[in-house]
Design goal:
By secondary structure, this protein is of the alpha+beta class. The chain has 19 helices and 10 strands. It has helices at residues 2-17, 29-34, 73-80, 83-90, 112-119, 133-198, 207-213, 220-224, 227-243, 268-277, 314-321, 324-331, 351-357, 362-365, 372-395, 403-411, 425-437, 477-485, 527-530; strands at residues 20-26, 42-51, 58-67, 100-104, 249-252, 261-265, 283-293, 298-308, 339-344, 492-497. The strands form 2 sheets. A 5-stranded mixed beta sheet has the order 1-10-2-3-4, with helices on both faces. Strand 2 (42-51) and strand 3 form a beta hairpin.
Length: 531
């Protein structure tokens, strides 16, 4: 009974929170917050003030209820009914407190001077300089300047860190592309030399082979100027996962057409997690093959993972999360997917997380028992199968090929084995030469868009967001509360009722689904009001 009551209470809290939307939170103080407010809205704000210094330093928390005068009567009534809910969340379920609560009705009243004049009588500031309004204003301006500079320094460091991550990612892609190119070159050279020996009168390699031999080290940028190289490598790696090849996992970026390669290997879940943790600024999609070594059978399962990096911006996260249905459809071309693990953080990309989705497999691998016993048995069966697979390939006379090697061997097919070989020798030479010169082997990308071979810009996932949104927009209430009270990264947070999605017009023959509410945009004001 008690458990049912607790679950019902949790559902009620989540239901109430779903009616609210975080407009934003920042370190720019009251002036920054006002930029995101509107006269025809009911809003709530949490403000943090730091007064005094040293042992006399005091933190004051203010709850602001903005009841816009231009708000319609019905809208105001519905919004004000949520005030207790907002207050409860901002007080961390009643565990924290407000030092003062105020209500304002006009944006012109939402000024630092007016707020401090209103609440100063409730504040007791222990400092040598006293607690006058002018001193409070001075200390608040110093607080905002200090916290803004700290935020800028942190943002600069984060930008440099993400830049290093992108450079490392590009270096990995370049290395993968170079590996393909080198293998293709060797295959073409060997094939043409063999052809020269078999043909009477051919005494030396042809000019194309001489050119290939004279360029052992490619320019890194040249490999990146042919997007088809990495696309073919990604496709080959996914095929290997699905067909029992050397690689048992592959991780790509959120582009269904180009499948930008992030990594792959034969090390299983742990190796995939390390790769995902190195790309925290991306939404990633992975395909993994899991084998379980039982007493009488070997089971194979294929799982798709939707991994969300912890540093992905809010707007970009939503855009790339929407790719999941198309990516799942694309992955099913390579393997019979048993389960999909959605919305998982890189650090949570573990075998335990996957087994929670394919837990039914554990019951086939252990005799008797259930629950944790089955999970332990499945973990053991997976580790045994992985070790056995790696050992067998290491000692095999003809070991399985890596995707780059497999792709290279597909360039040349023996004429007597398949008359309809995909690549002829001449086609292979042309392909290899285009890789050496950096010239594209086709004029468009896979999705038909024109491709510029001289485009050296950053990858599309690193572009700045074009939408104007408040900092920390769309975060959860408990998260912004933590930014104000605990980490003190922000000194204001603003919340409003979540706008209702507009219903599709009834007259439309095929009404489109209502889109989720957009991030809050600052209201338009004339120059005089803005000043």
């Amino acid at each position: 009974m008690r458990g049912n009551i607790l679950v019902a209470a949790q559902d009620l809290v989540l239901g109430e929170q779903s009616k609210l939307q975080v407009v934003g939170a920042g370190a720019g103080g009251v002036p920054e917050m006002v930029h995101w407010m509107a006269e025809d809205e009911v809003m709530w704000a949490l403000l943090r003030f730091e007064f005094g210094s040293g042992s006399f330093k005091r933190t004051k928390i203010i709850f602001l209820h903005f009841n816009g005068e231009s708000t319609s009567t019905i809208k105001r009534g519905q919004a004000n009914a949520l005030t207790k809910t907002v207050s409860n969340f901002f007080r961390n379920g009643g565990k924290d407190l407000f030092h003062a609560s105020i209500q304002l009705k006009q944006i012109d009243e939402v000024t630092l001077e007016n707020i401090i004049n209103t609440v100063s009588e409730y504040f007791i500031v222990d400092s040598i300089s006293g607690g006058s309004t002018s001193q409070m204003l001075k200390e608040y301006h110093e607080q905002v300047a200090k916290e803004q500079q700290k935020l800028k320094d942190a943002a600069k460091d984060e930008k440099e860190r993400l830049r290093a991550v992108r450079m490392e990612r590009k270096a990995v892609q370049i290395a993968l592309a170079n590996e393909v190119i080198e293998d293709v070159q060797q295959v073409v050279i060997q094939a043409e030399l063999t052809s020269a020996v078999e043909k009477p009168g051919v005494d030396s390699p042809t000019p194309s082979i001489t050119k290939l031999m004279s360029t052992p080290n490619m320019k890194p940028r040249a490999t990146m100027r042919n997007p088809g190289v990495l696309l073919q490598l990604s496709v080959e790696s996914l095929k290997q996962v699905g067909n029992g090849g050397l690689w048992n996992w592959s991780l790509v970026g959120p582009d269904v057409d180009k499948l930008p390669m992030l990594g792959g290997g034969q090390g299983g879940v742990d190796e995939m997690r390390k790769c995902a943790e190195a790309n925290q600024d991306l939404v990633m999609y992975g395909l993994i093959r899991l084998q379980f070594e039982g007493s009488t059978m070997l089971q194979t399962r294929f799982v798709m993972l939707h991994i969300i990096g912890e540093q992905v911006p809010t707007v970009r996260r939503g855009r790339f999360n929407a790719v999941r249905p198309k990516m799942e459809k694309r992955f099913r071309d390579f393997a019979n997917i048993t389960a999909v693990v959605p919305d998982v953080a890189p650090k949570d990309t573990t075998l335990e997380t996957i087994l929670d989705k394919i837990g039914f497999a554990a019951s086939y691998l252990t005799q008797g028992g259930g629950g944790e016993e089955s999970k332990v048995g499945a973990l053991r069966a997976y580790q045994e199968a992985l070790i056995k697979e790696q050992a067998e390939n290491a000692k095999a006379i003809h070991p399985k090929l890596k995707p780059a090697q497999a792709l290279a061997t597909k360039v040349i097919e023996e004429p007597h084995t398949d008359e309809t070989a995909t690549f002829s020798l001449e086609a292979a030479k042309s392909f290899a030469e285009s890789l050496v010169s950096g010239a594209p082997s086709r004029k468009t990308t896979e999705d038909g868009e024109a491709w510029n071979p001289d485009d050296d810009s950053e990858d599309e996932y690193s572009e700045e967001e074009g939408d104007e949104t408040a900092p920390h927009a769309q975060m959860r209430l408990e998260e912004v509360n933590d930014l104000i009270r605990t980490t003190k990264e922000c000194n204001w947070a603003l919340v409003r009722p979540r706008p209702k999605a507009k219903a599709a017009p009834k007259a439309a023959p095929q009404p489109e689904a209502a889109s989720p509410p957009a991030a809050f945009e600052p209201p338009a004001r004339d120059a005089e009001a803005a000043a």
